[in-house]
Amino acid sequence: MSQAYVGQPPRGRGSSGNPPNRFEKLHYEVIPAELSEDPEPDERAVATQVLRDVSRSIITYNDSPDVGFRASVNPYRGCEHGCSYCYARPTHEYLGFSAGLDFETRLLVKEDAPELLRRELSSPRWTPQTVVMSGVTDCYQPIERRFQLTRRCLEVFVELRNPVATITKNELVTRDLDLLADLASDHAAASFLSITTLDPELSRRMEPRASIPERRLAALQALAEAGVPCGVMIAPVIPGLNDHEIPAILAAAYSMGARIAGYVPLRLPFAVAPLFETWLEQHLPLRKEKVLNRIRSMRGGKLNDPSFGSRMKGEGAYAEQIAALFAVSSRKVGFTARFPALSAAAFRKPKGPQLSLF
C-alpha cells in the first residue's frame, strides 16, 4: 500500500511524498500538518532504511539500441542522492515501494555482490566484456561509504582484469583511484562524472545528497591525474533549466582533464513526470510552464517518449538546438574522444578451485 502526501520535501530529500504505486490498488494519504488537528509539529526528517537484497545474480544484461553497453552491475536498489528527475525511480515500484520518498529512503543492499560477481566472471559462460557500474542507481551513493560493495566489486574486476566503467555523481569515486588506475594500466577502466549544473544551489535542490558540482569537477581532475580515462555526462539536460549551461560545463570538465563527453535529455517515465512537476512547483514555480512546454516540444507533445531511437536524444527543433549546442561547444573546448574501447585482453580466470557461494 503506497503513501501519498503533499508539502515541501523533508530535509535532504528530493521528493515530498510517495505517489501511488502503479501496480497497487490502494494507497493512503497523510494530512499536511497545517490541516491536521494533531498539535505535534510535522517532522521533516526521514531516515534512510537499509534492507537486504537476496538476489542470486549480479550482472544485468540489456539489448537496448539506445544504451552503449550490454552488461552492468548495480550493488544497490534505490538511491539516496534523491535526484528529483531520476528515470530509475519507477524501478522501486516492482519491489512494492513508491517511486517517491521510498526510492531514496528505502534502499536495498546486495551484500553478496562481490562474491556473486566473482562467481559469474569465473563461469565458463562468461565472455570478457566491459561492465558498467551502475546501469541504474548510483554505485557511489552515500551508503557506499558504509558497505563498500562497489570497492569490493572493483577488487574482483582488478583480480580478473575484466574491464569496467563507472558513472557517478559522487566524489567518493576518488577513494578507489588505486583500483581504477590499476585497471587503466591495461586499458581496462574508465570513469564518468555526471554534472547537471555548475550552480551549487540548483544542484542542492535537484540532487540533495549528491556531491556539489565543485567536488565532482575535482574528482575528474583526480581521475585524470591518476591516469584513468575520464569523461563528463551532462545528464539530464533539462530544457529551459540547465541547457544554457552546456558550454560552461564542458569547458570546466575539460579543464579538469575530462576527454570524453556526452549528454542525455530529461526522461520522465511513469511516476517521475508528476514528481518532477511537483518539484518545479515547489522550487521554481515561475519557470514551471516554460520547462514543461519545452519538454513537450522534444517529446512529441508529451512529457515522456519511451520510443527507441528518440528517448535518449529527443526530437523536434528544440532537441536539434541542444544537439547543435553540445556539438559546437564540444569542438570549441577540444573534446574529440568517444567512449573508450576498453580492452579485455588481460582478462584471466581465477587460479585454484572455486567454492560455490551457496
The pLDDT mean sits at 92
Main beta sheet strand tally, sense and closure? 7 strands, mixed
Strand order of the largest sheet: 4-5-8-9-10-11-12
Helix content: 25-40%
- The radius of gyration computed from the alpha-carbon positions, rounded to a whole number of angstroms, is 21 Å
DSSP strand count: 12
Q: Which sequence of SSEs, written as H and E, runs from N to C? A: EEEEEEHEHEHHEHEHHEHEHHH
Unreliable runs, pLDDT <50, ≥5 residues?
1-5, 33-42
Computed structural class = alpha/beta
User: Number of helical segments?
Assistant: 11
Head-to-tail CA distance between termini: 33 Å
Characterize the overall form. globular
Beta-strand percentage? Answer: 5-15%
